[in-house]
Each structure stands twice: as C-alpha cells, then as structure tokens.
Amino acid sequence: MTTLTDPPRESFRLSMLINDTRYRSLTFQAIALLVLIIAFAYLTNNLLTNLAAAGLNIAYDFLGTPAGYDINQTLVEYDSQSSHARAAVVGILNTLLVAFLACITATVFGVIAGVLRLSNNWLVSKLMAFYVEIFRNIPVLIWIIIIFTIMTAVLPGPREFRGDNPTSSMFLDLFAFTNRGIYIPAPVWGPGSMVVVATFIASVIGVIAYRRYATNLLYSTGRLLPMGWPSLAIFFVPTILMFYILGRPIGLDIPELRGFNFQGGIKVGGPLIALWFALSIYTGAFIAENVRAGIQAVSKGQTEAASALGLRPGRVMNLVVLPQALRVIIPPLISQYLNITKNSSLAIAVGYADITATLGGITLNQTGRAIECVLLLMLFYLTISLSISAIMNVYNNSVKLKER
Amino acid sequence: MSDTHAQTVAFVRDTEIPSAPPPYAATGPVKWMRENLFATPANAVLTLLALYAIYLILAPTLPWILNGVWSANSLAECREILQGATGACFAVLTERWPQLLFGFKYPSDLYWRPTLAFVLLFVAVAPVLFFDLPRKLLIFTGLFPFIAYYLIWGGTIFVPILALVGCIGGFAVYQRFVTGSFAAGFFGGIAAALAIWYIGGLLIPAGASNNAMLTPVPSRDLGGFMLNMMLGVTCVSLSIPIGIALALGRQSSMPLIKVVCVVFIEFIRGVPLITLLFVASVMLSYFFPPESSVDLFLRVVIMITMFSAAYIAEVIRGGLAALPKGQYEAADSLGLDYPQAMRLIILPQALKISIPGIVNVAVGLFKDTTLVSVISMFDLVGMIRGPILASTEWNGVYWELLGFAALLFFVVCYGISQYSQWLERRLATDHR
C-alpha cells in the first residue's frame, strides 16, 4: 500500500514573484503602485513649481470675501456684499431647483411620449417617434440656446402690454409672458390660511389611509370598496369647504404692469425657463425610449395570462404589466435624473446662476482661484451623483427578483 | 348516357363567378385608415389632435423655408428682397459657409486640406464599419491619423512620418515578442516606439516647419464643424482602448488595480463634462512641466478622452458581465493565460455585445463636443453665437443658423444610430 503524503512544501523563492501565478499579482500591484506614486509625485511637483512661479497658493479664504456681483434669480437672501460662499450656496440651490423641476416635467413628457409611441394609432406613434429622434440626436446645448432665443427674441417686451390697444395681452389675465421672463401669480397667505393648508395635508393623509384600509379589507375579506371617487372626494372636499368657511384666506397677487415692467407675482427668469424646458424635452425623449423598452420587456404572455384569469384591462395594467415594467424602467430613469443634474451645468451658456455659473464662472474669474473653484465644483456634483447612485442601489436591491 | 339529365337540370354553370371585390370599407387606404387612424372614438380624437399639431408646426415653418432667400450680403438686404413677406434668410449660410465649417481663422486658401482629410476619413472608416470590404483597406485606416494630422496642421512632414515610424517599430517589436509573453511584447513595443520617437526627435532639423510644403496652421485657428468632427473622431477612437483597459482593470482580481479603476470611472462619471472642460482650460496647464506649452486643443482632447473612456469602460464592463461564465472557464481549461484568454476568447465576444452601447456613447460624445464653445473655443455653436451673430451684417439671424447646426448634428447622429441598428442585426448570431 502506498501512503499519501503531502508534496514537499516549496519554500518561497524570489523568482516565484515572476513565474508563479500565486505571487505574480503581487509583483504587478507593486509595479502599479510605484508607477502611480511616481506619476502623482511628478504632477504634484509640477503643480507646486507652477504655483510658486505664478505666486499662488491653495487657500479657501477667498470664500469669505464679498462677492461683489449680483445674481438676478436667488432663492435665499443675497446681495453683492454677500460672500463668495453665499454666492455658491445660491448657485447650489438654483442647480437643485432647475434639476428638480426638469426631472418632474421630463418624466411627464417621457411617459406620455413613450406610451403614445406604442399606440395603435399610426399617426400618433410616428409623431412620437419623430419627437424622440429629433430631440435625441441634437445636442442639448443647441436646444437650450434655441429655447432661450425664443424667450428673448420672440416673446413681447413689457412695453407691448401697455396702452389702450396693446399688441400683447396676459394669458387668462394671470400670466404674463414677456421677454424678461414669465410672471406668474403669487399666493398671499392671509390669516387662517395655515388652517386650510393643515386641512389639505390632513386630507392627503386621509386618502392614503382610506386606500390602505380598502386594500386590507380586500385582501382579508374579499370585499371590494370603491377606490376612485372616495379618494377624490377626500382629497378635494374638506380643503375647499375650509377655504370658503374661513372666508377665502389665500389670495393671489397677480402681476400687473406698472412703470416699465411688471410688478407683483413671482418672476421666473428667461434663463431658468429655457434651461428647464430644454432639459425636460431633451431628457423626455430619452425617458420615452426607456418607458417604451420597459413596457415592451413585459412578455405578451403575461398580459394574456392576466386576461385569462379574468382581470379587466385596467387591472391587467396596474397589477401585472406596470409592476414588471417599472423594474426595467426605474434604473435608467434614475440615471436620466442624474444626467439632468449634470446637464443643468449648461446653465452657464444662457446666464442662469447655477453653481457652475457662480462658483465656476464669476467667482473663478474674479478671484483667479481656478484650482479651488473647480475642485469645489467637482466635489458638489460628485456628492449629488454618488447620493443618487446610492439611492438607485437601494432601490435595485429592493426590487431585485428573489432567486433561490 | 351522356344526356340522361339533359332535361332534368335546367341550368348548369360551367364558368366560375368572378369574385366580387371586397367591400369598399375593407380594402385599400380606407381599411388602413379605419384600422390605424380611426379605430375607436378616442383614437379618432388623437388623430385629429395629431393632425392639428402637425398643422401648427408646418403652417409657419413651410412658407418660411420655401420662401427663403439664398443670396444676399446682409440681413438688411435679405429683408429688402423679401419685402415684408415671411421667409428665411439662408443667405447667411451661403455667405458664412466656410466659417461655419472651418472657423474664422483657418486660412481660406487652405480649405482644401481639411476637406480632403474629411473625404479620406470616409475611406479610412469604411473598412472598420463594413466587414465585407477588402481587409487590405485597413492599412489605409492605420495611415489615416498621420495623413489627417499632416493635412490639417501642416508643417514639416517629418513629424507625422516619425510618429508613423515609431508606431511601426513598436508594432514590429510587439509582434516579435508577443508569442512568448504578452507583457514582454506590449512593454517592449512601447519602449521601442518611445526610443524611435526620442532619437528621431533629435534628428528633425530645427526650423523645418518654416519652409515646409504645407503651411503650418496653429491649433487655435481650428474651428467650426471641423472642430466638432475632429474632437469627436479623435476622442472616441482614443478612448476605446483606454476604456477596454479600464473595464478589464475594474474586473481584475488585484485589489489595487481594481480600486484605481473604480475610483477613476466613478469620479469621471460623477462630474459634468463642463467641469472637466474647465479643468482643461484653467487648471490642467498647472500640471504640465513649467517650460512646456500644451495648447488648449490637446488639453481638451485629453479631458474629453478621459470622459468618454470612463463611459465606454462601463459599457464594456456590461459586455464582459453578460458573457456566460463558461467562456472564462473554457479559456482557462484550454490552458490560455490571462492575456491570451482575453484577446482570443473573451474580448471578441464582449466587444460584440457592447457595440450598440459604444455607439451610443460615441453619439453622446459627438453631441457633447458642442460644450467646448463654453470655454471659448469656436466650434460650430461657438461660431454661431460668437463671430456670426455678433457681426453687424447678420445680427438677428437666429433660426437659420441654429436650424442649420441642429440639422448638421441630426444627420450625423441619426446616421450613426441607424448604422448601429444595422450592425446589431448583422452581428446577431443567435437563432430566432
């Protein structure tokens, strides 16, 4: 009988670092690390030499000094004496504002176009295909400029609303579309308006609670309560009642022409509108493709099986097709939101004061702190991107098909 | 016998009745319209709405386009010719045509050079795009970058020739050693090319550019749509090999390499291209040696290449992940080492899966080259917004110019995406 013995353990030899696959990766990594360190040292050395030659240093104290420039659209209080950091905050809020608005409208456009593109109606589906191809294949920068040009060159000036026979008039007597921006009515919060708002919030909670109760009842006893009309009633009736009982506490401040310009209301500047609308229709075209792909990804057998079970078409859509389609649609949808946020940096082309235009534009040019400004700018976008990616990962894990 | 029934059967039909045409509503265009446009009342409403939308779009634009003025010297002259009628002033396109294509600084007597390079581009790209063409044409594709560089920038012919010789030398060394070990071939090839370039650089006589056959043109004189094309083509072709390397690095089992690749990819993908262009325009020059002067064009190419390499890496990673694990195991069981397995088995299949994604990135990148107008380079959009709209003759001709730019980009991008769909069908080897 032979006995099995372990082969004699080879002692480690230096040549194994090259010839033995077990150790070769260590060699490669050591070389890579060395190359990396040398490259970084070289770049840093160049940077320091160049900075010393230009008499610069890396410091962030410029953020505290007065900015000295005005921003026409701000969400927080700001004037030219505020600091550069304050200007950057204004920019951040503006970026988030336009990105948020554009995400909502792009989703609306995209879902409508994507669903209509699958329509049986030949003309409508071709029209939507045309929309998608036109907007996907032309740079977003050109769209932003085109819409900004419409805003400034086509819309009438405030002057044309004046006189007995004005060439332009306000839309519904509430909105004024001028080349200086769009003026919309602002709500005026009178005494007691908080009660109305509270009622509204309470009724929203009420709707959710009712629907949850109805679903639970359906699953536990099989009794089907009507969902649609009660929800609408709970949503609207209490708020409207409260609004009139308290004597209409919320009014509207309607913009009107005084002097050379419109006063009152809320002014939404042309650059914001241009950026918002251009990003919405451009990204909407991409979202439309995602929606179409998502709906088409649900195999026809699923619809047929649901119909065979006796579900009505609406329920087939709600209970069978949409849950499966959303699994395909949502991840690319979120990355489109990310694209909107990143593309909102094109604001600089139309003069909308987002973070790229304030921190990366005027502040950079005024202070000459190129490296600091660009680094802060990148840091901001990186934070946004990574947080959206994190949300996406959480979602993907929650809807992942549970296998084995 | 034959006339047994002659009296009983009153009438026997011996010819077939000609088939009646189907009802009018069930044939031809009427049927098609009933099925596709007016199937249900809701559908009919949608159709009418769509028709109204089309009318709204076409009613102002059609007369505007058809009534366009094609030859005039300024907007005022255009308006005189139109005499108050609606009409476009396309004269701006004919008058500023060279500027739109080549920028406003490129010497006008040298326009034939970029034009020739553009035509040769099609010859060079054709064998890459269409596999049926003779493979010998790929030699020209390999030569094209050097020819195009020489045509567009001009200067001494020694520079492109030296670059070419270096590449050939490096490739020869690679071919010689790659059978032994991939690493030896790869690094040997790079070393050989660098050595040839260094030695050759010493041999080029100083001042050779001054009396060169083709007048040298500095990079800052490039502009117009040519700049968009150059940036798009250069950056996409440079970023594919880098993207492959990054994707492989991200899949690597070596933690250090993997971390470096992940950080690079996620960083680049997390920031907008415009910030990277800011880096190119204001920051990157700090990282070069003090005495060197790297011009803006090259800096922008570096940053855009990094940008698209990160995106292409993600696409290729998807392709690598989509390959069945059996392919990797099969390569291992044949005894292939890592470079062989990748070159011969994994990458050919993974790249094939990734082609649509790569084309998407390429289209996106080509559109994004318009962003360089923000850092005051005069590409097509930069030319329109800068010198042309600011000139006294054409101040106010927005729609013709922007429409032209949009059309140009649409034609290129739509063409590329159609090609990609054709290629996908062509490469589909699965049986349906």
Provide a descriptive summary of the structure in words:
The complex is a heterodimer of chains A (404) and B (432). Chain A has helices at residues 16-19, 21-54, 84-117, 122-136, 140-154, 193-221, 228-245, 270-297, 300-308, 313-343, 355-367, 370-399; strands at 176-178, 181-184, 186-189, 250-253, 256-258, 261-263, 266-268. Chain A is mainly α and 404 residues long. Chain A folds into three domains: 29-55; 84-185 and 254-399, Orthogonal Bundle (MetI-like fold), CATH 1.10.3720.10; 186-253, no CATH class. Chain A is extended. The longest helix of chain B is centred in the last third of the chain and has 31 residues, at 338-368. Chain B has 17 helices and no strands. In chain B, 31% of the residues are buried. By secondary structure, chain B is mostly helical. The two termini of chain B are 61 Å apart. At the A-B interface, α2, α4, α5, α11 and α12 of A face α2, α11, α12, α15 and α17 of B.
Oligomer: heterodimer
- Contiguous helical run count of chain A: 12
CATH classification class of the largest domain in chain B: Mainly Alpha
Largest interface: A-B, 52 and 55 residues
Residues in β-strands, percent of chain A: 5-15%
What summary fits the major beta sheet of chain B? none
Write a concise synopsis of the structure shown:
Chain A is mostly helical. Chain A has 12 helices and 7 strands.
Which features would summarize this protein structure in a list?
heterodimer; A: 404 residues; mainly alpha; MetI-like fold; 3-stranded antiparallel sheet; two-stranded antiparallel sheet; 7 strands; B: 432 residues; 3 domains; 17 helices
Please write out the topology:
The complex is a heterodimer of chains A (404) and B (432).
Chain A: H1 16-19, H2 21-54, H3 84-117, H4 122-136, H5 140-154, E1 176-178, E2 181-184, E3 186-189, H6 193-221, H7 228-245, E4 250-253, E5 256-258, E6 261-263, E7 266-268, H8 270-297, H9 300-308, H10 313-343, H11 355-367, H12 370-399
Helix pairs in contact in A: 3-4, 3-8, 3-10, 3-11, 4-8, 5-8, 6-7, 8-10, 9-10, 10-12, 11-12
Chain B: H1 28-36, H2 41-66, H3 75-82, H4 91-95, H5 97-102, H6 112-129, H7 138-153, H8 158-177, H9 182-203, H10 224-251, H11 255-270, H12 273-283, H13 296-322, H14 325-333, H15 338-368, H16 380-390, H17 398-427
